[in-house]
Design a protein that fits this description.
731 residues, alpha/beta, Helicase, Ruva Protein, domain 3, Rossmann fold, six-stranded mixed beta sheet, three-stranded antiparallel beta sheet, 15% strand, globular
Length: 731
C-alpha cells in the first residue's frame, strides 16, 4: 500500500513574495522526501481538487537515465566509455570477414563459410526453404545485399536462425572439441557490437542534437559533418546556448577541409593515420588557435598528398603567413618549392658530401645556381626521363569484389614482371585495395589457406608465378636500439670476421663475436654495447648520457686496439656508407673486404650513402627504413625469384635525385624476375610505371571506384580523374 507524506498546506494569496519562497522550500522538501517525486493537490473555492504529479528524475517510460555531463560523452573517461569494449571500440569476437570470406558469392553459393559441410548446412537449408516467406534474395551476392538484408542474415528472424544464433549455439556447447576448433577458426578482432566501434556507452545515444546522436555524428566523414552542422535547425533557446559552440565546431571542421582531410571520419583512430595525415591534423589545430607572430616549422607536410591536395596545403600555409606568422617548410615537393617566397638549398650531395649552403633566394634566381641539384631539376637541366617503351605483360593477379572500407565492389588486375602504380587522391582507397585486399589474400593463398576451387572467386590469375610476397613498409628495421644498417644488411657479419682475422686479434684469440656489441666479450660492459647510459628521472623524461667508460664507442679499450688499415671497429661503424665503400674498395685483394662492399653497394644505389653504418634504427626516417629493406633485397642477387614487392609511398622524404636512384633500383629488381606494385603520388614515379590503376574519383564515400586501368599515356588520354590532369604536364 502506497503512503503519502504531507509536507505543507498553503492558502494562496496574490502578490505574497514570502508565500512564493515558502512554496519553493516545501516543493524542494517534498522532492527530497519523495525520492524525486511529489504531488501537488490544488483545491478550488468549491472544494473540487485536482492532483498534479511532478518528478525531477531523469527518466521516461520506466527507464532511468544518467544525468548528462561532459564525461558522459567521452570514451576516454570510465563514465562515457562503452561497458562492453571499455572504450576500445573492438573486441575479440566473430570476424565477419572470416565467416563470409567471398562477398561476391550468394548464400546459395555457400558464401557463409561456417554453414558449409554435411552437418552445418542445415542452417543454410533452413534459410533457403523459408526465404520466400520474407523475400530474402538467396541468389544475390552478399556484396549487393542492402544493409537491412545483411543485418537480417546475421540476426535471423522467426523463420530461420541467423549467423549470430549459430555462434551462440557453438559457444554454449564448447565442451565439444569440434565446436571449440570451429569457434577458434572464425574468431578475430572485430568491431564492438554494442557501440559499433564508436567506443561510447549505449545510453549516450538517447541525447540528440537536431536529429542526430553523437554516435551518428562521429561516424560521419568531415565533409558530411560540416554540412550537418551548417544546416542544423535548433529552437530559439538552444540556438542561444549553442551559438558560440557552433562557430567553433564549424571553424574546426572547415580547417580540416582546408588541409584536405574531408574524407576522414571523426571517429578515425589516430594510429591508423599516415604521417602526413597526422601532421595536417596538427596543422588544422594550429589554424584554429589563430596565433599571430609565431614561427611554424613543418617537416614534409606533403607526405601522402596527391597533387590536387598539395594545392590546398599551399593555401593553408599562405593563410598562416597572412595571419602574421612565419612558415618554414622542409620539403621535396616541386609545387611547394615553386610557391615559396625564399628557397634555402643545402648540399650539394648528402652526408659528408653535403652540409653546405648551395643556394638561397627566389625561385626565379635558381638558374644562376651551378652546384644545386634542386636547381638543376627545377630548371629542367636534369630530369627523370619518360621511358621510351612500356613493358608488356601476360601474367597477372586479379582480386575480385573488394568491398573493404570505401571500395565499391572493385575487381582489378595487377600485372606481373612490371612496375605497377596504384594512384588516386588521398583517401580514394589505394591502401585498402593493396594492403587489406591484395596482400592478405595472396599471403593466404601462398600459405595454403584457400582450396583450389574456392579461391578463384576471391583471387585469381597467374598465382603459381609468385613464390613470395614482400610488403616493404616504413616501420623501423629493427626492434632494438642496437639495430643499424650494417646489422640489417648482414654487412656487419663480414666486418666482424675481417677484424677477427687481423694479426693482433689472432694473437689474442679474438673470434668474430668479440667485435659484437650484442654479446659479452669485447663490448663495453658498463653500457652493454649501447654507447649511452640511461638515467631514469622520476618525474621527468629519461636522460641519455654518453657512457663514461667507453666514451660512446661501445667497445672495451683492448677491442679498440685491433685495427684494420688504421681504423678500429668503432671508427668503421662511425663511417657513412659512401666512405665505407671507398675505404674497403681500396683492398681489392681481400676477399672479405670485397664481400663488405657488395653488401653495402645496394644501400648506396638506393641513395643512402650518407647514412652511418652504426646509426641506430630509431633515428632513421620511415623512408630511409623502407629503402634499407629494398637494398637488402637487391643484395640477395638471383635468390628468391618471382617475389612480388609491394611499396607504400617509397618516395617519402626523397629528393628528385634520390627518386632517380630509386627508379633504377626498381629496374634492377624487375630485371631479376620480380614484380613491383607501388602506392604512390609522386608524378615522376607514376610517369615511369608500366601500368596504372587509378582510384577515385574523390576521397571517402565518393571514392572507391576504379577510374582507369592502363598505361600512363592511356590515363592522360582518358581525361578522367585528377591524376590524369596533373600527369599530363609530365608526359
Amino acid at each position: 500500500m502506497q503512503r503519502s507524506l504531507l509536507v505543507d498546506r498553503i492558502i494562496v494569496q496574490k502578490n505574497d513574495e514570502d508565500l512564493l519562497n515558502r512554496i519553493s522550500d516545501s516543493v524542494q522538501t517534498a522532492f527530497y522526501e519523495g525520492g524525486g517525486e511529489c504531488d501537488v493537490i490544488i483545491e478550488d473555492v468549491k472544494g473540487k481538487s485536482t492532483t498534479h504529479h511532478f518528478s525531477n528524475l531523469f527518466e521516461m517510460d520506466g527507464i532511468s537515465f544518467e544525468e548528462p555531463s561532459v564525461n558522459f560523452f567521452s570514451f576516454n573517461n570510465p563514465i562515457g566509455a562503452c561497458k562492453t569494449c571499455e572504450g576500445f571500440g573492438s573486441i575479440i569476437g566473430v570476424d565477419p570477414d572470416l565467416v563470409i570470406p567471398n562477398k561476391s558469392a550468394s548464400v546459395f553459393e555457400n558464401a557463409v563459410a561456417c554453414w558449409n559441410g554435411e552437418t552445418m548446412s542445415k542452417y543454410k537449408n533452413q534459410l533457403l526453404k523459408n526465404a520466400h516467406k520474407f523475400n530474402f534474395p538467396v541468389h544475390k551476392p552478399i556484396v549487393d545485399l542492402t544493409k537491412a538484408q545483411y543485418k537480417l542474415l546475421w540476426e535471423g528472424n522467426s523463420h530461420f536462425e541467423g549467423i549470430n544464433a549459430f555462434f551462440e549455439m557453438l559457444t554454449k556447447e564448447t565442451y565439444k572439441i569440434q565446436y571449440r576448433v570451429m569457434l577458434a577458426r572464425y574468431r578475430g578482432k572485430t568491431s564492438c557490437p554494442d557501440c559499433e566501434g564508436t567506443r561510447l556507452r549505449k545510453d549516450a545515444n538517447y541525447v540528440r542534437v537536431g536529429e542526430k546522436c553523437l554516435r551518428e555524428i562521429i561516424l560521419m566523414p568531415v565533409a558530411e559533418a560540416q554540412t550537418y552542422f551548417k544546416n542544423l535547425k535548433l529552437s530559439a533557446s538552444d540556438e542561444k546556448i549553442s551559438k558560440r559552440l557552433l562557430i567553433e565546431i564549424n571553424n574546426r571542421l572547415q580547417y580540416l577541409m582546408d588541409v584536405g582531410l574531408n574524407y576522414l571520419s571523426l571517429n578515425r583512430v589516430a594510429n591508423t593515420l599516415s604521417g602526413g595525415e597526422s601532421q595536417r591534423i596538427n596543422l588544422a589545430t594550429q589554424l584554429g588557435s589563430s596565433l599571430v607572430g609565431s614561427l611554424y616549422i613543418l617537416d614534409e607536410p606533403s607526405i601522402g598528398l596527391h597533387s590536387r591536395d598539395t594545392e590546398r596545403l599551399i593555401k593553408v600555409l599562405r593563410e598562416l603567413q597572412r595571419q602574421g606568422n612565419t612558415v618554414i617548410v622542409v620539403e621535396h615537393d616541386e609545387e611547394i618549392m615553386r610557391a615559396a617566397d625564399v628557397l634555402i638549398d643545402i648540399g650539394p650531395e648528402a652526408g659528408t658530401g653535403g652540409g653546405k649552403l648551395v643556394f638561397q633566394g627566389k625561385h626565379a634566381d635558381l638558374v644562376k645556381s651551378k652546384e644545386s641539384y634542386t636547381a638543376k631539376y627545377l630548371t629542367k637541366q636534369l630530369e627523370i626521363k619518360v621511358p621510351t617503351t612500356r613493358r608488356k605483360f601476360k601474367e597477372f593477379i586479379e582480386v575480385k569484389s573488394i568491398t573493404d572500407n570505401n571500395l565499391k565492389n572493385v575487381s582489378v588486375k595487377f600485372p606481373l614482371n612490371t612496375l605497377c602504380c596504384v594512384t588516386g587522391v588521398s583517401g580514394s582507397g589505394k591502401s585498402t585495395l593493396v594492403k587489406k585486399a591484395l596482400v592478405p589474400r595472396l599471403q593466404k593463398y601462398l600459405d595454403g589457406f584457400y582450396a583450389n576451387v574456392e579461391h578463384k572467386s576471391i583471387i585469381d590469375g597467374s598465382l603459381k608465378q609468385i613464390k613470395q610476397v614482400e610488403y616493404v613498409d616504413q616501420n623501423p628495421i629493427g626492434r632494438s636500439s642496437r639495430s643499424n644498417p650494417a646489422t640489417y644488411t648482414k654487412a656487419y657479419d663480414e666486418i666482424r670476421t675481417l677484424f677477427s682475422e687481423q694479426g693482433l686479434a689472432k694473437l689474442r684469440e679474438y673470434k668474430a663475436g668479440h667485435f659484437s656489441f650484442n654479446v659479452d666479450g669485447g663490448r663495453c660492459e658498463m653500457c652493454q654495447g649501447e654507447g649511452t647510459i640511461t638515467v631514469e628521472m622520476q618525474f621527468m623524461a629519461d636522460i641519455q648520457l654518453p657512457c663514461e667508460s667507453c666514451k660512446g664507442k661501445r667497445f672495451k679499450a683492448d677491442t679498440l686496439e685491433i685495427l684494420y688499415k688504421g681504423k678500429s671497429i668503432a671508427d668503421i661503424l662511425d663511417m657513412t656508407i659512401d666512405d665505407a665503400i671507398s675505404f674497403f674498395s681500396g683492398d681489392d685483394e681481400n676477399r672479405i673486404a670485397m664481400k663488405i662492399v657488395d653488401k653495402l653497394k645496394p644501400l648506396q644505389d638506393v641513395g643512402l650513402g650518407y647514412v652511418h653504418l652504426g646509426q641506430s634504427s630509431s633515428t632513421l626516417s620511415g623512408g630511409e627504413a623502407q629503402r634499407i629493406k629494398l637494398a637488402t633485397f637487391l643484395g640477395m642477387g638471383g635468390a628468391n625469384n618471382s617475389v612480388l614487392f609491394v611499396f607504400d609511398e617509397p618516395t617519402t622524404g626523397l629528393h628528385f635525385h634520390d627518386v632517380s636512384k630509386l627508379l633504377k633500383s626498381f629496374e634492377a629488381l624487375i630485371a631479376k624476375g620480380h614484380s613491383i606494385i607501388v602506392i604512390e603520388h609522386n608524378l615522376d614515379v607514376i610517369k615511369c610505371a608500366d601500368w596504372l590503376i587509378d582510384l577515385g574519383p574523390e576521397s571517402g564515400d565518393e571514392g572507391g571506384y576504379v577510374v582507369f586501368e592502363g598505361t600512363p599515356e592511356g590515363l592522360v588520354a582518358n581525361k578522367k580523374g585528377y591524376t590524369a590532369k596533373y600527369l599530363k604536364e609530365k608526359l
